[in-house]
Amino acid sequence: MRPKADPGDRRRLNVKRYHYERHDQLRTHLSDFMAAYNFARRLKILGGLTPYDYIRKIWTSEPYRFILNPIHQMPGLNTLWTNRRSTSAAPSPADII
């Protein structure tokens, strides 16, 4: 017969302790943990799927909803006149169109 373990022993074995040199290390670890937890969490509103699984399901069933606009994929500032040279501070209507 095995001796009974003290319930306090089980609790101590399941707790991980971390030591941080700086407060920003704690913040980083906490934000990483919360991101991983929320990413892997199954949600009732999504039918018990994780957000990633739900997006993958919709992507396969309704691919037309995921057509990318090439303009959104271009790197750089989100302005129409950034690469145009203009002497005035504001762009003219001809530059915008």
From TrEMBL:
Q: Which domain of life is it from?
A: Bacteria
Q: What is the protein named?
A: Integrase-like protein
What organism is this sequence from?
Answer: Palleronia aestuarii
